[in-house]
Design the sequence.
């Protein structure tokens, strides 16, 4: 029987240094609605497979082993006291792919990914352990932050629409799926409809799951993918080939210069990643005002140590192109919206976020679910990238504090897509120095889009 709490207190836990261990059925009530939703939403986790096939030439069963291990590590967040639904560092994926593709396919490209993920992981752990996690990004000028986030958005969209890219393989499926997804997620019209139609409200709360299921039918109907051949049983991931051909266990550690060359892109990925940390804190703070019965201790330093540890471990046992991020924003919103409905709807936020991730891990083991979505994983990935591109561009613009910032940011973003993170940082530093001089770190505060002020 799970332990209850008094109103206004934290859910029970076992202290573990900076962490707070909470176990299902003991320290929190298991939330079955979130579990069953996670059971189906594992399809999004599987969308990482075509990326690893494309970048590293991994066989499907080897990439499946990476996804399964990453899925297990998702559980560490809520188990150790971080009340979030973790996910990929989605906006940074195109940047990481562009960096790794500078190296020839084979062991050298695998080493580049290992060096990148290990550097990012250790950097995050140090920031979390020293308490600097909440301070480091404040030292980066707003124009450069804005430019990197904009560039990540541009890169996400470009990776779908570039000549010979995924759009050319699934033009009708992506067009229809993305159109419906943007309507369901971002449309004001649909937001109003949800308030009066319970069925539409349920569809809205399922995130991109309905669109992925729709793609299973749309893609074969337009001849852009095969009809799924549903198989029964459990998956059979190939861990042996993974360890021998795609990890330091079989290939040895990368040369030191690979760690050095990864630093600029790691910093770019970290700026994007830190935006997810800020979003986590904002979403939890919003829920706090409606749920005074539970005190939620969200600590960015603890979060850094957890996802930093995930990245470091994965760099050794299964380097992963999507990285280990602090937040799956879409599903965090879905869980928190149900949490806001009160204690009867969800007893603890840890129960909701934890049960969801237990569900995705169960789904990853089930061959019927994996085989159902296998033909349309490229479409699911494109959908994720385009939604993330939309959000990144929106956030990147908001990071700018003046018209000058926005001009610098646009150039940084374009350079980042065309020449990579090293060039983008160099251009950003030079432009910011030329424009602001001694006010390099402060920039300026003024109204953006002043043409609209008098309306």
Sequence:
């Amino acid at each position: 029987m799970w332990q209850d709490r008094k109103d206004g207190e934290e859910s029970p836990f076992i202290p573990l240094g900076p962490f707070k261990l909470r176990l299902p059925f003991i320290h929190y009530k298991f939330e079955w609605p979130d579990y069953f939703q996670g059971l189906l939403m594992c399809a999004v986790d599987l969308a990482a497979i075509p990326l690893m096939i494309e970048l590293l030439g991994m066989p499907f069963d080897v990439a499946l082993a990476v996804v399964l291990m990453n899925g297990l590590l998702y559980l560490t967040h809520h188990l150790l006291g971080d009340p979030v639904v973790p996910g990929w560092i989605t906006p940074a994926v195109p940047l990481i792919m562009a960096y790794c593709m500078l190296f020839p396919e084979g062991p050298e490209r695998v080493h580049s990914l290992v060096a990148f993920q290990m550097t990012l992981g250790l950097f995050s752990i140090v920031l979390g352990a020293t308490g600097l996690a909440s301070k480091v990004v404040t030292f980066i000028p707003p124009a450069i932050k804005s430019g990197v986030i904009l560039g990540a958005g541009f890169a996400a969209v470009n990776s779908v629409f570039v000549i010979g890219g995924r759009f050319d393989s699934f033009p009708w499926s992506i067009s229809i799926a993305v159109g419906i997804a943007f309507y369901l997620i971002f449309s004001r019209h649909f937001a109003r409809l949800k308030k009066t139609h319970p069925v539409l409200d349920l569809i809205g709360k399922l995130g991109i799951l309905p669109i992925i299921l729709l793609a299973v039918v749309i893609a074969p109907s337009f001849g852009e993918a095969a009809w799924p051949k549903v198989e029964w049983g459990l998956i059979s991931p190939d861990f042996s080939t993974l360890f021998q051909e795609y990890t330091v266990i079989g290939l040895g550690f990368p040369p030191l210069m690979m760690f050095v060359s990864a630093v600029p892109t790691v910093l770019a990925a970290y700026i994007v990643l830190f935006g997810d940390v800020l979003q986590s804190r904002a979403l939890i703070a919003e829920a706090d005002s409606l749920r005074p019965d539970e005190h939620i201790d969200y600590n960015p330093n603890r979060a850094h140590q957890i996802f930093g540890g995930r990245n470091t471990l994965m760099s050794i046992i299964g380097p992963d192109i999507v990285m280990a991020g602090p937040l799956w924003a879409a599903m965090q919103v879905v869980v928190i919206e149900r949490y806001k409905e009160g204690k009867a709807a969800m007893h603890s936020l840890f129960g909701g976020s934890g049960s969801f991730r237990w569900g995705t891990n169960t789904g990853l083991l089930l061959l019927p679910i994996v085989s159902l979505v296998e033909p349309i994983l490229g479409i699911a990935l494109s959908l994720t990238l385009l939604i993330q591109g939309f959000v990144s561009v929106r956030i990147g613009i908001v990071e700018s504090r003046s018209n000058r910032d926005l001009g610098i940011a646009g150039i940084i973003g374009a350079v980042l897509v065309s020449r990579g993170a090293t060039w983008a940082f160099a251009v950003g530093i030079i432009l910011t120095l030329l424009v602001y001089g001694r006010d390099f770190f402060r920039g300026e505060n003024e109204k953006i889009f002043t043409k609209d002020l008098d309306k």
Notes: The radius of gyration is 22 Å. The chain has one domain: 31-396. The mean pLDDT is 86. DSSP finds 21 helices and two strands in the chain.
